[in-house]
Structure formats: C-alpha cells, structure tokens
Amino acid sequence: MSSLNVDSSLLPEEQFLCSICLNVFTDPVTTPCGHTFCKACISGHWDNSEILCHCPKCQKRFYVRPEVSTNSVIEEISVHIKRRRLNVPECLAAPGEVACDVCSTRKLKALKSCLVCLTSYCETHLEHHQRVVNLKRHKLIDPAENLEDRMCKKHDRLLELFCRSDQTCVCQFCTETDHKSHDTVPIEDMGAHQKGELAAAKAEVEKMVQVRQKKVDEIKHSVELSRKSTNKDIEDSENLFTNLSRSVEERRTNLKQRCKQQQRKGLKGSSMTWSRKSLSYRGEALSWSSSHTLRTTSTSYRPVSLSVVDVSDFSEISVYSDLCVGTVRRAVSNLVEIFKRELKTLTDMGKLMLNYKKFIYF
C-alpha cells in the first residue's frame, strides 16, 4: 500500500478523470473495449441512450448491454487522489463503527448510508450521491448497519412510515393493503417525537436526581450535626454525673463530720458524768467516816454532815440516742432535690431531640 501511495502521487491526475463527468473516477469500471468510466456515469449514459450501447470514448457499439468489470487498482488510486485534493486524513472504521461498503481493501468509516442503494459510503465514495442528479434523489441517513432490515419483507420496499395503530414500521404499499386507513406518520417525524419524549424524560430524571442529591446533602448535614450534638451530650452527661458523684461524696463527708459534732455536743451538755463521779467520791468519804466512828468513844462522837453531798434530782435528765436523724434527713433531701433538678434537665433535652424526629426520613 505504501508503494501504491508513492506511485499515485507521481501520476498526473488527468489520467484518472472520467471522460463523462470529467472528475476523478468514483467506483471505476472498465468496458470490454478497455476504457474506464465511473460506474454511475456509464450506467446513466447507457440508460439514456436511444441507440445501441456504445463506448463514449471510442464509439464502439454493443448489440447487447455489456458486462463491466471493476478496476480496483484505478479505484484505489482515485481514492488517494481525492484525499490528496481535500487533504482529508484516512479515518479507518473502528470496531463497532459502520464501514464503507465500497472500499475494497482499507475499510474507511462510513459518512452516510443510502436507503435506496442499501449501501454505506465513506466521504470519497459518497461524491456521486452529492453530484449525480439521479443519485441526489436517494434518501441518505446517518451510517447504519443491517440496512436490509429497513426493507419491507412483504413488498421489498423501504420502510419509510410508522403505523401508530399497530406500532410498527410499514412501507407505502402496506398503507394501501394491511394498514389501510391506519394512523401513519413518516418515520422521521415519529423519531423526532420519540426523541422529544426521551429528552423530556431525561430532563425529569435529571431533576429528580438533583432533588434526591439535595436531600442526601441535607441528611448528611443533619447526621453531622447529630454526631456533634451526641458527642456534646455525652460530654455534658459525663460532667453531670461527675459533679453529682463529687456532690454526693462531699455531702457524705460533711454529714459524717456533722454527726460526730452532734455527738460531742450532746455528751458535753450533759452533767451526768460529773455528778456520778461526785457521788462516788462522797460515798467513799462516808464509808471512811463510818468506820472511824465505830472505834471512837461516846465523848469524841461528832455527827457527820450530809449537806455537802450533792443530792440533786436527775430523774428528768435524758440523753437522745438519735442525735443525727434530722441532719441525715436534710442531707438526703438536698441530694434528692439535686437529682430531680438534673434529671429534669436531661428529660427536657430528650424531649427536644424527639421534636426533630419527625423531620428525619429517607
């Protein structure tokens, strides 16, 4: 192929011009007399000829329409010349793309497909359909594979209409037989309508996606706020219970000290201990006096005075054993009030969180 490219660049273009259209060959074919023409040009010339088929160049007559042969060498050189003129780089058909049906060796990417010829053409081979009058009437579409599927199996005609009644593609003959009086429209119009519906559906889906994305972002933001709030609640709860524990411990220590103070004050205010010791001393003195009195004579007898003995009445004196009952009760009441107050704070926080529950949904 590379040697062919060099040779084609050295040959003059005049040797590759069709004598009928005066352009570089397109689909060149050779007649039995050895002259080369564009396939469409020689076919059109013979179709419009009123006399016997003859060669436009040498005027040789043929009593029957002769068979022509494809000249693949001239065709390939002609393609390179056209590309050199247009300075268009070769664009080979990639896997999955529609290839030109006319290219013999290097299959180029098709530019259009003809629904009349049922053939796909690259830019170079499409030239005749853009220049020859009869070929300009052919219907060209974007490159498509399996063009035979565009033909009606029953009438072997192009499926160019869409039957809305039966939701199927039909040809012109179908509308006069099986689909007579049915609601039919051109395929292009139906295609445009379906494209419009698809575009509207796509826009609606994109709108729904945006709404869902916005809601997802809101939920993510709410989750992040909830996480921060939860961490703060945990920290506050830890501080709360730490303070409660410290308060309980302080009140326990204070209560213990106050109970001991109450006990000391109760014992200090009572004179029973001192009175008991005083009576004990008096008893011992009386015992000593009695023993000495028995040994003396009647002349030395002296009466013993009991006036110094403290005989106060202690029957009304009593000592309370439960000195700290009130102190304990007050301390416990204070703790209960503290717990109730803190518990109310936690309850209010819980109610506040429940108020936002109805706004969270998926």
Automatic annotation (TrEMBL):
* A Pfam family assignment: TRIM_CC
Read off the CDD domains from this record. Bbox2_TRIM16-like
SMART domains tied to this protein: BBOX, RING
Checking SUPFAM superfamilies in the record gives: B-box zinc-binding domain, RING/U-box
Give the transmembrane ranges: none
Q: Using the record's annotation, list all stretches that form the B box-type domain.
A: 147-187
Which InterPro entries does the entry mention?
E3_ubiq-ligase_TRIM/RNF, TRIM8/14/16/25/29/45/65_CC, Znf-RING_euk, Znf_B-box, Znf_RING, Znf_RING/FYVE/PHD, Znf_RING_CS
Molecular-function annotations in GO: zinc ion binding
Keyword list, A-Z? Metal-binding, Zinc, Zinc-finger
Q: RING-type domain spans which residues?
A: 18-59
Superkingdom per UniProt: Eukaryota
Can you say what this protein is called? Fish virus induced TRIM protein
Q: What is the lineage of its organism?
A: Eukaryota, Metazoa, Chordata, Craniata, Vertebrata
